[in-house]
Amino acid sequence: MFEKRIKDLRKKLLKEKLDGVLISSVASITYLTGYSNFFKEERDGYVFITSGGNYILTHSIYSKALKGKILNFEVIEISRRDPPEKILQNILKRETASIGIEEHDLRVYEYKRLNKAFKNLKNFELKVDRVIKNKHEIELISKACKVGDKVFEKVFKKIKLGMSEKQLVFEIESLIKKEDLDVSFRTIVAFGTNASAPHHLSGKTKLEMNQFIVMDFGVLFENYCSDMTRTVFFGNPSEKQKYIYNIVLESQKKAVEFLEKALKNKKSIKAADVDKTARDYIISKGYPSIPHSLGHGIGLEVHEGPHLSPKSKDILKEGMVFSIEPGIYLEGFGGVRIEDLFVLGKKGLKQITNSKKELIAV
Amino acid sequence: MFEKRIKDLRKKLLKEKLDGVLISSVASITYLTGYSNFFKEERDGYVFITSGGNYILTHSIYSKALKGKILNFEVIEISRRDPPEKILQNILKRETASIGIEEHDLRVYEYKRLNKAFKNLKNFELKVDRVIKNKHEIELISKACKVGDKVFEKVFKKIKLGMSEKQLVFEIESLIKKEDLDVSFRTIVAFGTNASAPHHLSGKTKLEMNQFIVMDFGVLFENYCSDMTRTVFFGNPSEKQKYIYNIVLESQKKAVEFLEKALKNKKSIKAADVDKTARDYIISKGYPSIPHSLGHGIGLEVHEGPHLSPKSKDILKEGMVFSIEPGIYLEGFGGVRIEDLFVLGKKGLKQITNSKKELIAV
């Protein structure tokens, strides 16, 4: 799998007339090598690919453990004396060489140092390749989703009057860790009016009667992410609360129906049109436009392409895995979001998160 | 506190002849506003400070929750139509304006967009200001350390023959979360020979008899980090194992003694000299030079200045908080690391992690 990916990268390298590509994002390094130990918050290493060689550049704290471990890769140690740009110079020999860089990931200080050694730096998008998943990747994401469903099924027993958002986060994350797995991102739990912020930071707010509970969480399965959101009700929902919930649910259904119809008609599917379908439905019911994209691709990163948003130029294609997650957020009232993951497969659209979606009153 | 920090930043802005400073790192945003909800893996927002105004630029999913919440800050919504560079243009009115950016954090794609709108972009280091901690910050880090000590005290009961590294990670993190707190970084647990890699990714390796266990973990207390490492022994350590452990322990002591002596003599303390003291001691005993820095500053980020490393130019000063963490790593044998945090205070050097350091046999 990794050999094929590197082979494909080399083809691109030739096509774009690059002498080498410097990969810095941890997700892309994992994509090319299977190695995922680097910390995302630091710059622990790079992958460098030329027409003739594969290199991992990393600090001494990793280099020993890595030597000989990654098939077909040579490990080169970064140090003060041998910074990345010098190592690249040693490999390429000439400063006229042109190098691809991940502009979405590389920091300005790295760029400036690199640019002193090489004049020709060009943006290189490995992210684009990662958007289309193979069978194995889809399996891993699906497995992550299954664990998410299992966790959701179990979490109800843990919901109690007076518990804090943070406690519920802890319960969700513990259930994931009991499966010997990690979370794919910081779990979001929002009670009541806090749910009017889509990315609420869970805190000490305590659960009261008759509140919405938004739970947005994901599982990491062999480096691949899941992501799902369910909104449940603690107590007895009023008519208005049920009404809002069902508009969100219906909005997701509209997006799915739009996709399925387009697939049936073998039409090219613009991601922006899927977004529009769900968005317009919510607006037509008199509620505010969704303050975020309808959905995002997922894989080695929780958020990657394709982008299902109003201005997206992405076309949805076979092998893509993405979320559909409409929401209504009202200040002082709260919020509702329903998020599922879908695969665009050979046989059509398949939902891979399968927790129930009728409004659950706990 | 935040008002003073912004006032200080404005002085720097004048001094460096900048018309504005764009702060992008989440730690620095937290430092200036107290707001820490932005995800580190995404670009959720920026802070922009001019001589006359304080702004938070963020996406719609945050902007509503933020409006009016951060004292003295105006919230401006980023959108496709209003990207950051356009918002800055609206504020500054002229493209000759010079803007400070965090080159260590800003991505190349952001830099290029910004650079199209403004020709004068200069590196700006707020990280430098963050290195000196005030009393309140030291209190928060110390509180995080205390929880770390408490967790370490409790974790022994959880260590069992045959448990996996990941299970021990889970036990440590659960103990932290039971205190209603978060971890400050991904917990590292390494059994036996795995400990020869300083940044081992904990996995399914099972604990066997007569192995070293390295535990490196931290607690987040009101946005401030702790960080500590203890190496314990499962079974009965051999003479060689005890010998190696004690060299590491002695190496840390040497560094502390060096610091205390320099403080007593009121000498300027070069961080590189502290590193050298501990490093040389290990080498003098015939073991390899530490494959990482002796220590690092800590605060809103786990790793920040000062840097206690061979090539560091940092001078250790009052108000700095940093780790001293020597280690010996031997392939096929394993590793030992002992890490504590220290404050350089008015009354001298104070250790703020206080778990015992004699070799513990579990």
Q: Could you explain the architecture of this structure?
A:
With 362 residues, chain A is an alpha+beta fold. The first copy, chain A, folds into two domains: 2-130, Creatinase/prolidase N-terminal domain (Creatine Amidinohydrolase, Chain A, domain 1), CATH 3.40.350; 135-351, Creatinase/methionine aminopeptidase superfamily (Creatine Amidinohydrolase), CATH 3.90.230.10. Helices cover 35% and strands 24% of the residues of chain A. Chain A is built from ten helices and 21 strands. Chain A has a six-stranded mixed beta sheet, sandwiched between helices. A three-stranded antiparallel beta sheet of chain A has the order 7-10-11. In chain A, strands 8-9-12 form a three-stranded antiparallel beta sheet, covered by helices on one side. In chain A, helix 9 packs antiparallel against helix 10. The first copy, chain A, is globular and about 70 Å long. The mean pLDDT of chain A is 95. At the A-B interface, helix 3, helix 5 and helix 8 of A face helix 3, helix 5 and helix 8 of B.
Average residue pLDDT of chain A: 95
Strand content of chain A: 15-25%
Kindly report the name of the CATH homologous superfamily of the largest domain in chain A.
Creatinase/methionine aminopeptidase superfamily
Give the CA-CA distance, first to last residue of chain A: 45 Å
CATH topology of the largest domain in chain A: Creatine Amidinohydrolase
CATH class of the largest domain in chain A: Alpha Beta
Strand ordering within the main sheet of chain A: 4-3-2-1-5-6
Number of strands of chain A: 21
Number of helices of chain A: 10
What characteristic shape of chain A results from the CA principal axes? globular
Determine the oligomeric state from the structure.
homodimer
Secondary structure: helix percent of chain A: 25-40%
Please mark out the parts of chain A with pLDDT under 50 across 5 or more consecutive residues, or reply none: none
Tell me the radius of gyration of chain A.
Answer: 23 Å
**Given the helix and strand composition of chain A, which structural class is it?**
alpha+beta
Q: How many structural domains can be distinguished in the coordinates of chain A? A: 2
CATH architecture of the largest domain in chain A: Alpha-Beta Complex
The biggest sheet of chain A amounts to:
6 strands, mixed
| Greatest interface | A-B, 52 and 52 residues
